[in-house]
Amino acid sequence: MRSPDIDIFIATINDLEQLADLFDLYRQFYRQPTDLPAAQKFLAERISNNDSVIFIARKNDSIVGFVQCYPLFTSVGMKKLWLLNDLFVKAEYRGLAISKLLIDRCKKLVHDTGAKGLMLETEKSNAIGNQLYPKAGFVLNEGSNFYEWTK
Using one digit for the tens of pLDDT, what is the confidence trace for 61-108? Predict the structure, then answer.
């Protein structure tokens, strides 16, 4: 199902203001305090340094959703992997398959770059994401433990 009048583009520095607004809402979804200046700075660095690929969903002149992928590598598979790190659609545009369009564009990125696959992590409490990702073809990896260290 294609969402009506939605186009997917790679974000550029010209999209920064609208993109930062959505990114700030995304962070608030994960219980982070609003910080629009920091969101703009963070995204400007990602775009300027080519640290990630950010796809935006645009309806007319408004950005209504985005997804951000970071490059990784698998030593065992000797290939690039992509980490789907951020996915967000404005509340009033949910239910229109925009997330699916964004995920499909990430899958195309995997194919276009000869990568092995696409990985993601979401909170167990993210009911919407935990329903969406299996429907989009992702398989829960129950054979691995996920560890993290933070300072």
Answer: 999 999 999 999 999 999 999 999 999 999 999 999 999 999 999 999
Q: Do the Cβ atoms of 3 and 65 come closer than 8 Å? A: no
Taking a C-beta distance cutoff of 8 angstroms, is the pair 67, 85 a contact? Answer: no
* 122: DSSP letter: -
Tell me how far apart the alpha carbons of residues 83 and 118 are, in angstroms, rounded to a whole number. Answer: 6
Which residues pair with residue 68 across a beta bridge? Answer: 54, 86
**Which residues does 89 contact at the CB level (< 8 Å), separation at least 6?**
57, 64, 65, 98, 99, 102
Tell the CATH topology of 6-135.
Answer: Aminopeptidase (3.40.630)
CB-CB contact of 67 with 122 (8 Å): no
Using the predicted structure, report yes or no on whether residue 1 has a pLDDT greater than 80: no
How is the chain split into domains, by residue range?
6-135
